[in-house]
């Protein structure tokens, strides 16, 4: 029946297509109901779910495309109730009379904003969208504001509310097994990934965020450069009504280290018309003062004070009914007094860290009467990072921790100029409905840096030095890059209940000077007519973007290490770095599948499986190592001195299985619960660099953020009392892995062969919303880490030290309070 060599996965995909034809509806539609979904300013709303129902017929549903267009086949003309839903917007219900000749309708959705009390638990159109083939996780702006996640309410900290997203003790984000630099980040269509190291360094006020969407499997060819997915942030537009909010404008109370005015995160937003009915603006400000209290350190030496501020100014101008112009201006500033402070790293070993970010972008959407749309954009991003140690004393690494002054001082500047275009031609029918998408992106990047280093010394258990490292070379360099990409995708609906996305992406980069081709295919099938269940499968090739920081390493200083034996100095060992020949883009193959079901009453569940294998990853390996190695522990080992060359010898492996259940109660109320089982492995867990003092003989193991088991849940519920609500979040996960080292700084055994204790957070908050002198306010009181679970963040990992394997940095139980101003009350 099958051709010789057909794989089991290919057979399953053929069966999926065949079954879709067998179970498709045999009835022939008589009326075509078409239209567009737009927001209150006339901008198209994609991925909105449109349902039309009239007794005795079952509801017919469709999803809007990139231009906001939809088409529903109805059994007969007549009156219908039309319902439109989209995350981040209020639900729309409208009566429509559909004539026999068909009709074109414009449906307007209003963005979801804070409400006092609104609960709807009855039967609503299914939340399952067969037209969506990719795996997406979404957070609305109200969820980000309402759920009591630990630490300050920043957009970065809110990411952990999505299953599969882990935040490590240093604040680093890890999306579905990847490092922070393996995800791409987008703001209103503009790339905001840090041009230096590909991390997420943008600060945004959560009040100005409409929606955050993480695409982590079955990605469209439009998305590229990140093997761990793409994070898309959409912010609010203004409206014809002047609106404003303010949160935490009075410093809150904190009980960590005693009752005091603690962390302060003032935020404010204002939006409204520039010209009513034609042009609008929104401006959101985010500030933060964080005392950064570290438990276990003496008073007066236990605070890493953080000052930060960010502002985003966004406008929309409808030049004509067919031309919409958007602009964004983003500014960020941050300063930490003692970055890196910890129980084993006192304030003398820390860095004063300052960073700035500036981004400006302009984007235009032009639509044609036939339904085509062209989106073009131009953006400029500039980032600045400055790190200054507390002094020039020699940095000491001892079995009891670190002392002296950190050895590195640096100034880094990165820039990106981006030009992109996306074209959506009019949908057309040929053996089904096709919606093509074609696009291109061009970026010019620059990196300038100045590094100055003193040195460090490793001290053994006997108090004698084991080695001393100093640095040579200028440490002043500049590295440019040009990156080009293009893609094409066909969103094909061969049947009413079957959707297939097939496309290809091509990337070229000046640093590797080669072209990488990434084919993608995904399918979604709703086997039953009511559409309450869908099955999705997909395969994708992903290629990661290059990192300027990684490719600039050979231009940096060199380390010179002098080993000691019984106090006697040996011959110096020099470490050098170079770029290897014939490099290619890191390549990841990704298989994924999922099932989603709507149980009614707005309760839906999803099961997802993901298998990702990475090859040709960038890693500095000892010079002379045979190319094309497998994922062997012995292949990548590091010691003091040696010549290291950038190669494609890194191998990564990630597997994930997850189940999640979610219910929307109406308005901004709802809950989510999930379990994720995963495994993240690599043959290059620790990356050798000029600043890496560890010696590694076996570099294969779990990644530092590997968490095999995680239970996550949160909710925002109305209480029986009017305008009262309760917010809860629980987060349990396996403890992160870590390595143990000998007194000489050598990793003992396999990398990351030990683990921290399991981590558990339970936060409970109660909120009262009320009107005072014509203004709406919300007062919240709550307790974080209700159970008082330790949740340590540091460990003494030196074998033979008196406090070996002692954990530090307990979170502790603490209370929080906040007050929000939600604008004027409406009558």
Briefly say what this structure is:
The chain has 827 residues and is mainly beta.
Describe, in plain words, how this protein is organized in 3D:
The chain is mostly beta strands. It folds into 2 domains: 8-109, Carboxypeptidase-like, regulatory domain (Immunoglobulin-like); 135-824, Maltoporin, Chain A, CATH 2.40.170. Helices cover 4% and strands 54% of the residues. The chain is built from 4 helices and 51 strands. It has a 22-stranded antiparallel β-barrel. Strands 8-13-14-11-12 form a 5-stranded mixed beta sheet. The longest helix has 16 residues, at 8-23. The radius of gyration is 28 Å and the shape is globular. The relative contact order is 0.11. Mean pLDDT is 87; it is low at 1-6, 8-29, 115-123 and 626-637.
Shape: globular
Give the fraction of residues assigned to helices: under 10%
Q: Would you state the CATH class of the largest domain?
A: Mainly Beta
- The total number of structural domains is 2
Radius of gyration: 28 Å
How does CATH name the architecture of the largest domain? Beta Barrel
Main β-sheet: number of strands, strand sense, barrel status?
A: 22 strands, antiparallel, barrel
Keywords:
Immunoglobulin-like; mainly beta; Maltoporin, Chain A
Task: List the topology elements.
Elements: H1 8-23, E1 31-39, E2 49-53, E3 60-63, E4 69-74, E5 78-85, E6 92-98, E7 103-109, E8 135-140, H2 141-146, H3 155-158, E9 165-167, E10 173-175, E11 184-187, E12 190-191, E13 209-217, E14 230-235, E15 243-247, E16 253-254, E17 260-261, E18 267-275, E19 279-290, E20 306-318, E21 323-339, E22 351-367, E23 373-389, E24 395-398, E25 401-403, E26 408-424, E27 428-429, E28 433-453, E29 455-459, E30 465-472, E31 476-495, E32 498-509, E33 514-525, E34 533-543, H4 548-551, E35 558-565, E36 568-569, E37 573-579, E38 587-600, E39 603-622, E40 642-666, E41 669-682, E42 701-702, E43 709-718, E44 724-733, E45 737-738, E46 754-755, E47 759-772, E48 775-784, E49 794-795, E50 807-808, E51 814-824
Parallel strand pairs: 1-7, 11-14, 24-29, 37-40
Antiparallel strand pairs: 1-4, 2-3, 2-5, 5-6, 8-13, 9-10, 11-12, 13-14, 15-18, 15-51, 16-17, 18-19, 19-20, 20-21, 21-22, 22-23, 23-26, 24-25, 26-28, 27-28, 28-31, 29-30, 30-35, 31-32, 32-33, 33-34, 34-38, 35-36, 35-37, 38-39, 39-40, 40-41, 41-42, 41-43, 43-44, 44-47, 45-46, 47-48, 48-51, 49-50
């Amino acid at each position: 029946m099958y051709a010789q060599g057909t794989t089991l996965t290919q057979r399953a995909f053929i069966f999926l297509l065949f079954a879709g034809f067998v179970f498709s509806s045999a009835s022939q539609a008589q009326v075509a109901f078409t239209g567009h979904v737009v927001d209150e300013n006339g901008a198209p709303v994609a991925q909105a779910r449109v349902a039309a129902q009239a007794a005795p017929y079952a509801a017919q549903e469709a999803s809007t495309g990139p231009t906001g267009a939809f088409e529903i086949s109805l059994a007969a003309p007549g009156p219908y109730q039309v319902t439109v839903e989209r995350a981040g917007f209020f639900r729309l219900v409208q009566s429509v009379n559909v004539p026999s000749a068909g009709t074109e309708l414009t449906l307007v959705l209003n963005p979801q904003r804070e409400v006092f009390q609104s609960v709807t638990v009855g039967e609503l159109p299914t939340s399952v969208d067969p037209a969506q083939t990719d795996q997406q996780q979404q957070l609305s702006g109200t969820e980000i504001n309402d759920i009591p996640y630990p630490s300050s309410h920043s957009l970065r900290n809110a990411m952990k509310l999505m299953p599969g997203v882990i935040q490590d003790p240093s604040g680093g984000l890890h999306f579905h097994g990847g490092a922070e630099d393996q995800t791409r980040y987008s703001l209103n269509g503009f790339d905001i990934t840090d041009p230096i190291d590909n991390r997420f360094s943008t600060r945004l006020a959560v009040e100005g965020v409409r929606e955050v969407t993480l695409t982590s499997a079955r990605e469209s060819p439009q998305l590229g450069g990140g093997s761990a997915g793409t994070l898309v942030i959409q912010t609010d537009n203004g409206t014809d009504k002047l609106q404003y909010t303010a949160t935490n404008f009075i410093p809150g109370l904190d009980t960590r280290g005693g009752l005091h005015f603690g962390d302060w995160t003032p935020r404010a937003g204002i939006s409204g018309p520039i010209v009513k009915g034609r042009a609008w603006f929104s401006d959101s400000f985010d500030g933060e003062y964080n005392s950064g209290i570290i438990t276990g350190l003496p008073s007066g030496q236990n605070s890493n004070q953080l000052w930060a501020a960010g502002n985003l100014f966004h406008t929309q101008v409808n030049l004509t009914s067919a031309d919409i112009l958007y602009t964004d201006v983003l500014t960020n500033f941050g300063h930490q007094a003692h970055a890196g402070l910890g129980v084993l790293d006192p304030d003398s070993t820390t860095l004063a860290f300052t960073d700035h970010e500036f981004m400006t972008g302009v984007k235009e959407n032009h639509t044609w009467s036939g339904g085509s749309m062209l989106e073009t954009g131009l953006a400029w991003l500039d980032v600045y990072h400055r790190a200054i140690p507390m002094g020039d004393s020699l940095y000491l690494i001892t079995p009891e921790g670190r002392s002296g002054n950190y050895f590195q001082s640096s100034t880094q500047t990165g820039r990106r100029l981006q030009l992109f275009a996306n074209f959506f031609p009019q949908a057309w029918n040929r053996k089904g409905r096709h919606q093509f998408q074609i696009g291109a992106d061009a970026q010019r990047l620059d990196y300038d840096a100045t590094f100055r280093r003193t040195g460090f010394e490793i001290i053994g258990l006997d108090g004698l030095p084991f080695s001393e490292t100093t640095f040579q070379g200028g440490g002043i360099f500049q590295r440019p890059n040009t990156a080009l990409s293009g893609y094409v995708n066909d969103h094909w609906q061969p049947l009413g209940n079957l959707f297939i996305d097939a496309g290809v992406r091509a990337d070229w980069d000046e640093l590797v000077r080669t072209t990488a081709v990434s084919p993608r295919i995904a399918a979604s099938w709703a086997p039953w007519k009511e559409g309450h269940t869908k099955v999705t499968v997909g395969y994708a090739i992903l290629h990661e973007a290059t990192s300027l920081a990684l490719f600039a390493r050979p231009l940096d200083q060199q380390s010179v290490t002098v080993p000691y034996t019984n106090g006697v100095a040996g011959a110096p060992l020099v470490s050098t770095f170079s770029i290897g020949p014939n490099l290619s883009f890191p390549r990841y193959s990704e298989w994924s599948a999922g099932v989603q079901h709507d149980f009614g009453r707005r309760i839906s569940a999803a099961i997802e499986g993901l298998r990702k294998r990475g090859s040709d990853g960038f890693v500095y390996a000892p010079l002379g190592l045979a190319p094309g190695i497998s994922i062997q522990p012995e292949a990548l080992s590091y010691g003091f001195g040696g010549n290291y060359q950038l190669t494609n010898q890194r191998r990564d492996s990630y597997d994930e299985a997850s189940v999640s259940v979610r219910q929307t109660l109406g308005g901004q109320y709802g809950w989510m619960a999930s379990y994720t089982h995963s495994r993240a492995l690599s043959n290059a867990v620790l990356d050798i660099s000029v600043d890496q003092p560890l010696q590694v003989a076996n570099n294969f193991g779990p990644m530092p953020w590997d968490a095999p088991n995680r239970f996550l849940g949160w909710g925002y519920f109305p209480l029986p009392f009017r305008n009262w609500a309760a917010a809860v979040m629980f987060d349990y996960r396996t403890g992160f892995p870590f390595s143990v080292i000998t007194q000489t700084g050598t990793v003992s055994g396999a990398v990351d062969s030990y683990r921290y204790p399991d981590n558990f957070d339970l936060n409970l908050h109660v909120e009262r919303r009320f009107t005072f002198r014509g203004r709406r306010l919300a007062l919240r009181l709550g307790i974080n880490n209700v159970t008082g679970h330790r949740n340590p963040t540091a460990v003494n990992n030196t074998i033979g030290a008196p406090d070996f394997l002692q954990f530090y940095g307990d979170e502790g139980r603490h209370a929080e309070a906040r007050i929000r101003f939600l604008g004027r009350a409406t009558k």
